[in-house]
Design a protein that fits this description.
Chain A has 15 helices and ten strands. By secondary structure, chain A is of the alpha/beta class. In chain A, the strands form two sheets. A six-stranded mixed sheet of chain A has the order 6-7-8-4-9-10, with helices on both faces.
Chain lengths: 420, 456
């Protein structure tokens, strides 16, 4: 659904939002949210952080009118979420997947699709696409009650996407998911943001938030403690990092000399993988040698993420994740003197599943993204990359460049959070 | 509406997969054929048919009522409890659509089951005569008394006559100065009771006539009028039997001294045991064109020496077929189920499952004995009466009745017609008024409450 001209400047806006739970006598007992002034721009991924009990979920429930505010107002997409027209543009994944255990995965999606009033053929199409996308393609006829927690999260996410929402409100989307699933969800979120969606991500898994969010806000005791772009908040302004391929000892000597002349401190070490990257690599390798039983949803999701050559699973990735699978830069402590690689021509855009899902011509997607990204500096659109790169990266061939096409020297590693 | 329909479908899926519906279905599928095979009643075909239809309809009605109550109370409250509703509510669906969807789902499920089991009962009922292969005379009796729909006409109670006699007796006692030292209301009630009994009594050698109005049997030459009655006798006669000489016809003809009768007057003479219902039939042309027919009973002094007191006397005649009547009886049960579905859903918009189901059961069982309670509480002492007026009476009038004329079984057992008018009236009051009010209240509450639980 293309984004209509927003009725308000913000996708989510709260004004002095306050929720106080009274005790039995009506005396204020718990101040869950106090004078919250939240502003989430259109087309950004906003990370809403905070320890348990800090009011994150309460805020979401206030936004969705599941709870009524004691004081203040909450606007979603410029209106109230009780308005069916607004509600039709929201996708919500609750903290736990509150799904009907007696329905099968397919029936679940069908049920929510019906509530959104999707016509039969569209519904069926989207259900197939989404099941494949969240890696439950073979499990459409299994009862939700028999699903593991991670699988429930997946079907919960599929349900949140059934209406192709403009605004996604996700409460702990990756809780209970295995690392590969987590990774895929994060990739998906980035891709959805690129397609013009606004994502309100509530989590206390900091790694997730750091990887995908443009801006974050940290809640404690029902109050917003700090808010701002991730890069700004985390940047070490007085340090630099240089990452290179293998160097001859003489070259290294020269560089060290140069640095000594500069009079700054330095440190030379070999980069270390994040555990997540390592784990994903191992599993990917294993999956290539031994086929999965199918009981684990991993294979499905993996199928579309790992970009094996064209067949079905790959084309799903292709379509859902648009031209190029978004890569979360997996290096925390390395990157950045990057050799220029020859960008490969993007695969011809396929007008298939994603198009059906978003119901708009493919061509419109790209310009719209560029316009709507407000909070993040629009960096030059990188050339889309071949699937082969992703495959190699995931399978352990440490091919350094990740699609960055020019020589960059960034002061920190936050580049990865918005590699676009 | 499409939204509500999605919720309704989901509700049905829930009930079906909860297996509670399966339990009820299984139980009935086993019990109904067993009952059809095992039940004998009084040994005749009619008795067998009557006991089977009575028990099977009661059983299906009762079990489906319980099922409806359980599903309707459980569906919404479990969604609230498991918080599955949190997610549904964020979708573009209004709260009232959710309540309506739950109600629709429960009602449709109950009605489908009712339709299925009614078909089974109907089929078994029709099959019983074939299996039993009874003598022709029993077959005929079953045809005229069971596979039929008869209108029942009761004589008008001569209220004015009774009141006049009561006042006369009070006046007589006052003149004699024999009025007992009691409040007038109690004296009047006691005398009234005596006069009412006197009105039903036929002394030895006396004749009693009952006038029935609006008796319009079909003009088919084979059609008959039934006279159904039950009496007791004081003192008890030997063999507990009374010899009765009956006349049925338009008595105005000889009252006005007509020599030539336009309609025949039939005579019946028979011995009948006391305290059991009996019935005889006369050709239907006994009724006058304007629908009046009179039944006369002569307490013959040659055979009897007891006063006969009639507890019941009715004239019946066929007005329709068994099939249509059976259908209307099923509709009467449907009204009950639909009301119960609305009750459970409305209650569970603000009550938890245990409380909602308890309250629903109270309403259901109170409805089953509503008329009995109302009758038995009428004569209370002042203070209690006030309490009753303010609480229970209000409650009993607010809830629908499921007993007396609202009970489906009696119509089938006695082959009485359940009229469309009565059915319409029941639907209007139970569904059009009581159920709509309930649903409106449920929707009003549900639209205002916070759905999410407080979690901090």
């Amino acid at each position: 659904m293309p984004m209509e001209s927003p009725a308000s400047e913000y996708a989510i806006e709260t004004i002095n939002l306050t929720k106080i739970f009274p005790d039995w006598w009506g005396r204020p007992k718990v101040k869950a949210v106090v004078d919250l002034n939240l502003k989430v721009f259109y087309n950004e991924i906003y990370g809403f952080l905070g320890p348990n009990g800090s009011g994150k979920t309460t805020t979401i429930k206030l936004l969705l009118n599941l709870l009524y505010p004691t004081k203040g107002k909450a606007f979603v997409l410029g209106g109230q979420s009780t308005d069916p027209q607004i509600a039709a543009r929201i996708g919500y994944l609750p903290e736990e997947s509150y799904l009907y255990r007696y329905l099968t995965a397919r029936e679940t999606l069908d049920f929510y699709g019906r509530i959104f009033g999707l016509p039969g053929p569209v519904r069926k199409n989207r259900i197939d696409t989404l099941l494949e996308m969240v890696g439950l393609a073979g499990m459409g006829n299994r009862r939700i009650g028999t699903f593991s927690k991670g699988m429930m999260r997946r079907i919960g996410l599929a349900q949140a996407l059934i209406n192709d929402p403009d605004l996604l409100i996700l409460d702990e989307p990756t809780s209970g998911m295995d690392p590969i699933g987590t990774r895929q969800i994060k990739d998906l979120l980035l891709e959805l943001a690129r397609r013009g969606k606004t994502i309100f991500l509530c989590s206390h898994l900091l790694a997730d938030v750091e990887d995908v969010c443009h801006r974050i806000g940290i809640m404690y005791g029902g109050r917003m403690q700090v808010e701002g772009p991730v890069r700004q908040l985390l940047q070490h302004r007085d340090e630099m990092q240089i990452l290179t391929g293998p160097l001859r000892p003489e070259t290294r000597e020269k560089i060290e000399t140069l640095l000594r002349q500069e009079g700054t401190w330095y440190q030379i070490s070999t980069p270390v993988d994040r555990l997540e990257t390592f784990f994903v690599n191992i599993i990917t390798k294993a999956q290539q040698t031994q086929p999965t039983s199918g009981a684990q949803p991993v294979s499905g999701v993996h199928g579309f993420l790992a970009a094996q050559p064209p067949p079905p699973s790959q084309s799903v990735l292709e379509q859902l994740v648009s031209k190029k699978p978004q890569q979360i830069a997996e290096k925390i402590s390395d990157t950045t003197i990057v050799e220029k690689t020859q960008p490969v021509e993007p695969p011809a855009p396929k007008r298939e599943l994603l198009e059906q899902l978003t119901e708009k011509p493919f061509e419109k997607a790209a310009p719209m993204q560029a316009e709507t990204v407000k909070p993040v500096e629009p960096s030059p659109e990188p050339k889309p990359q071949v699937r082969q790169d992703v495959l190699e990266k995931l399978t352990g061939g440490r091919k350094r460049p990740d699609g960055l096409t020019e020589k960059t020297c960034l002061p920190d590693s936050e580049e990865r959070s918005d590699a676009q | 509406m499409r939204n509500s329909w999605a919720i309704a479908k989901n509700t049905i899926a829930q009930a079906v997969r909860m297996k509670i519906a399966a339990m009820v279905i299984l139980l009935l599928l086993v019990l109904l054929p067993t009952m059809a095979a095992m039940m004998t009643g009084d040994g005749t075909l009619l008795g067998k048919l009557q006991s089977f239809s009575s028990y099977s309809i009661s059983l299906v009605g009762f079990l489906l009522s319980l099922l409806t109550i359980t599903v309707s109370c459980y569906s919404l409250s479990s969604d609230l409890q498991n918080r599955t509703l949190d997610l549904v509510i964020t979708k573009p669906i209004a709260r009232y659509q959710i309540v309506l969807g739950k109600f629709l789902g429960t009602a449709i499920l109950s009605l489908l089951l009712l339709a299925g089991f009614s078909c089974i009962i109907y089929g078994l009922t029709l099959a019983i005569p074939k299996w039993a292969n009874p003598p022709a005379e029993q077959m005929k009796k079953a045809q005229t008394e069971f596979f039929t729909a008869r209108r029942v006409i009761t004589p008008e109670v001569p209220e004015e006559e009774i009141n006049r006699r009561v006042e006369e007796r009070i006046e007589a006692l006052r003149k004699k100065g024999q009025l007992p030292d009691m409040p007038m209301s109690e004296i009047r009630a006691a005398l009234r009771e005596q006069e009412t009994i006197a009105q039903k009594s036929v002394e030895v050698a006396a004749v009693k006539e009952w006038d029935f109005q609006s008796v319009f049997p079909p003009s088919d030459p084979n059609s008959v009028l039934f006279v159904r009655y039950k009496f007791q006798a004081a003192p008890d006669p030997p063999n507990s039997e009374i010899f009765g000489q009956w006349r049925v016809g338009d008595f105005r003809q000889f009252r006005t001294g007509l020599r030539q009768y336009k309609t025949p007057i039939y005579g019946v003479e028979r011995y009948d045991s006391v305290r059991t219902p009996h019935m005889f039939e006369v050709p239907a042309d006994a009724a006058a064109e304007d629908g009046q027919v009179t039944v006369g009973f002569f307490n013959s002094p040659e055979a009897n020496f007891s006063t006969v007191i009639f507890d019941q006397i009715e004239v019946l005649y066929q007005v329709g077929g068994f099939g249509v009547n059976f259908f209307r009886v099923v509709l009467l049960m449907a009204i009950r189920l639909v009301f119960l579905a609305a009750l459970g859903v409305s209650l569970s918009t603000w009550l938890s499952f245990p409380v909602a189901i308890l309250f629903s059961l109270v309403v259901f069982f109170a409805g089953l004995i509503n008329g009995f309670i109302v009758e038995s509480i009428e004569g209370l002492e002042a203070l209690l009466a006030l309490f009753y007026q303010l609480t229970i009476k209000w409650f009993l009038y607010a809830i629908p009745r499921f007993d007396g004329p609202y009970s489906p079984t009696d119509y089938l057992v006695s082959g009485e017609v359940l009229s469309w008018q009565f059915l319409g009236k029941a639907a209007l009051i139970t569904l059009g008024l009581q159920m709509l009010l309930l649903l409106a209240a449920g929707i009003w509450i549900f639209s205002r409450r916070e759905v999410a639980k407080i979690t901090v």
